[in-house]
Request: fold
Amino acid sequence: CYHLGADSSHRDLLKEKIMATIKDVAKKAGVSISTVSRVINNPSAVVESKRNAVQQALEELNYKPNTLARALVSRKSDCIGLMVGELGSSFFSQMMEGIDRIVMNAGKHVIITSGYHDKKREQEAAEFLMARRVDGIIVHAKALSDEYLQNMARGTTPVVFINRLVPGFEDRSIYLDNQQGAYLATRHLIANGHR
Reply:
C-alpha cells in the first residue's frame, strides 16, 4: 500500500506489479506490442534476442494475460459453463465433481452457476455463461421453457442438456425415461411373483 505522497518511481513500480498491460511489457522490452503478442502465443516465431527481452519483461512486470480479451480474439476461453439446479444437493455436487474432473483432464476449467429451479434465475445463469463466451455449456434446467432452451441450442455456443429431453435436440439431451424405467421395474417384480 502506498500513500499519495509516494514518489513517482514507487507509484510506477506498484503499477507494474499490480496491473501490467501488454503495452507496458512492449515498452520495457523495447519491442512492438505485436512482438509481445507473438512471444506469448508463438515464441518460436520471434528472434531469440527479442524473445528473451520480452520474457524478461513479462517476468519482471509479473504480467498476466487478460483471459477475457484473449477469448474475444481467439473465440476460445478454455472454460466450460455448467448450470445446475442448486449447489448444495448431493446429486449436483457429485455431478459437478465428475464434470470438473473430465474438464480438468482436457486442460480446461469449469464456470459453475445455479438457477435454483427458478425461471428468472435460470435465465440469468444461462445468459451469464453465454456472455462469458465459454466454449460449451452443460445445462440442468427445470424452469426454462423448451422454446428458450431450443433457442439457446441454436446459438453459436455448443449446449448439452442434462436430466431433460429438449424436443429437436435429442442428440444433445442426457436424460432418464422415468416412465419406461418404472414400467420395467414393475414388470420385473410381477414376473418374479411379487405383488
Summary: Residues 1-6, 13-17 have pLDDT under 50 and may be disordered. The chain has nine helices and five strands.
